[in-house]
Design a protein that fits this description.
Blueprint lengths: L1 H8 L7 H8 L3 H13 L5 E3 L3 E3 L9 H6 L3 H5 L1 E9 L2 H8 L7 E9 L18 E9 L9 H15 L5 E4 L3 E4 L2 E12 L5 E9 L28 H22 L5 H6 L7 E6 L2 E10 L5 E5 L2 E5 L4 E5 L4
Parallel strand pairs: 3-4
Antiparallel strand pairs: 1-2, 4-5, 5-9, 6-7, 7-8, 8-9, 10-11, 10-14, 11-12, 12-13
Helix pairs in contact: 2-3, 7-8
């Protein structure tokens, strides 16, 4: 019933419970109960006495048919698709399923993650029906060394996707974050399975805050969402996912042949902190300097008092110096 309600309400206008119930052949109380359950989870439903209910324009539940219909047939056919109502994490789901004995492209998308995770073991807050929780498993040959810069590429593709869907001023924070207005909008987590010196599978996890507007207590940093940006961009998660997947597969085809180097200029044009003083923590090691973009492997260039150094990704923390 929720999917049908969302389709009726995706115009962003107010709809009365009586009107919705009549169209669906259910009682007004059934409509209220269904929407109340979602509202209790933080979904941005506006309720006004005498007018009814309203959700953000373009807000829909995930539908695999809508996602695949927006993609070329050859893209759809080369992927094994999964759309889940809830899952521990989309990355964990694909790591369990990935096998080099039968390497194939897998995609897992979920309405909710019960144990979503970000980098450095952090929880990724994943309320139902509000954001994008997506993982893509891709086989690679040549070992983990061939994957240098992959997380930066994914971030770049995500920003380009958002730009094409009407969202301006998204920026990249090395190595795995997308910012909007200086706040975290999206994150990337890549985990590997298989032989890290030979044939392996990269599980590319992407989380994007789309409709979230409640200040979730579990988020320990400044964050935002596409809804909170108040821009006139696409909020239909199915459309955003289809655009992202198509762009990512095209970019990965280039990456397989040439690595990250062809993408350096585009990444640095969107580098949020280029030329700014930063602090990088890698375990107990703290490095201060001025951020100067990335090299052909995706390593961060940092001008320090001792000269320029290159820092690789992994378990690192990058902050502006006044935040340290």
């Amino acid at each position: 019933m929720l999917a049908a309600l969302f389709k009726m309400m995706s115009d962003g206008q107010f709809h009365s419970g009586e009107e919705l119930g009549r169209a669906l052949g259910v009682s007004r109380a059934a409509v209220w109960k269904s929407l109340k359950r979602l509202e209790d989870q933080g979904f941005p439903i506006q309720r006004v006495r005498g007018k009814g209910y309203r959700i953000p324009r373009g807000a829909v539940l995930l539908e695999l048919a809508e996602i695949t219909a927006a993609l070329p047939a050859d893209v759809v056919e080369q992927i094994q698709w999964q759309l889940l109502d809830s899952v521990d994490s989309t990355n964990a789901q694909l790591l369990k399923q990935s096998s080099m004995k039968e390497p194939r492209k897998l995609i897992c998308i979920a309405e909710q993650q019960l144990a979503g995770k970000g980098r450095r073991g952090r929880e990724w807050v994943s309320p139902y029906g509000q954001n994008i929780y997506l993982s893509l498993a891709l086989p690679f040959s040549g070992g983990a060394q061939r994957l240098e810069g992959l997380s930066l590429l994914v971030g770049l593709v995500l920003v380009e996707t958002l730009e094409s869907c009407g969202f301006r001023h998204c920026a990249l924070k090395w190595p795995n974050d997308v910012l909007l207005g200086g706040r975290k909008l999206a994150g990337i987590l890549i985990e590997l399975a298989g032989d890290l010196t030979s044939d392996c599978v990269a599980v590319i996890g992407v989380g994007v805050n789309v409709l979230m507007n409640d200040a979730a207590a579990a988020i320990d940093q400044a964050w935002t969402s596409l809804l909170l940006s108040r821009q006139e961009g696409v909020l239909n998660r199915n459309a955003l996912i289809a655009e992202f997947i198509q762009r990512l597969l095209k970019a990965v085809a280039v990456f397989r042949e040439s690595g990250f180097e062809p993408f350096i200029d585009a990444w640095q044009q969107r580098d949020a902190w280029y030329g700014l003083p930063v602090v990088v923590r890698t375990g107990a090691v703290v490095t201060e300097g001025v951020e100067r973009g990335v090299d052909h492997r995706g390593a961060l260039r940092l001008d320090t008092a001792e000269g320029q150094v290159l820092l690789n990704g992994g378990e690192v923390s990058l902050r502006l110096r006044h935040d340290s």
